[in-house]
Amino acid sequence: MMRYRLRGIALHAALVLALLVFMFPFVWTIIMASNTTADIYRFPPKFTFGGHFGDNVRHVLDNVAFFQSMANTATVAISTTLLVLFFDSLAAFTFAKFRFPGRNALFVVLLATMLLPAQLAAVPQFQTMALLGWVGSLKALIIPGAANAFGIFWMRQYFQNSIHDELIEAATLDGCGFFGTYWHVALPSARPALAFLGIFTFVGSWNDYMWPLIVLTNPDHVTLQVALSTLNRSHGVDYSMVMTGALMAMVPLVIIFGIFARQFIKGATEGAVRG
User: Which keywords fit this entry according to its UniProt record (predicted)?
Assistant: First the structure.
């Protein structure tokens, strides 16, 4: 009994230590955002919260069109997430439960695209956006991100294990076509997986920097990450202002994760067990 108790104490101590390690960057960001740049450079470092957070927020708002950039980012992130949830789940359901010629070969090609770095597609993707006349528009961010290989792979694994073939046959006998079976049978059973994919996609779209920096030539359409990068001045960096901007950009993500955390964790753990 004592051995199991000691093992439990050691496990909880390790979890607490891991929590402290992972939480330190966030706490340090808040500390830097509430102090001045001079306090950040001070040695030994200052590990207490300061009283300059309000001033730093005003400096960020004076130097960056923060709320306009946040609205652009929210538009892109929400639109991309909804499109990914629809197209990826629809394609995954097709791969998982319907047989058609070349299905396995097509899925292998789809998985192979996951091995290619995103930077490799930047030039041809930009040329495509230029031909369509979308350079500088938010459509250049939303449409290319409307589907991805990871989401299809993730949802396919979930559908294969969560939906039995007998259920598909019963829905077909009841008069459901392909889309009816997808909408009334597949989606209700895949809510945890959809929540995981939705949060994963939203966070990735919200934090995306490289592609918006390349394709958004219109200053009125820049996203939040691109706008915040302008705080890094060539003659010097006000780190307190940069950290304040990063903290402000992080708040919507924390709220979204807080709302959908239960479904996110459920989807992740079920996918780990079933996949």
Answer: Cell membrane, Membrane, Transmembrane, Transmembrane helix, Transport
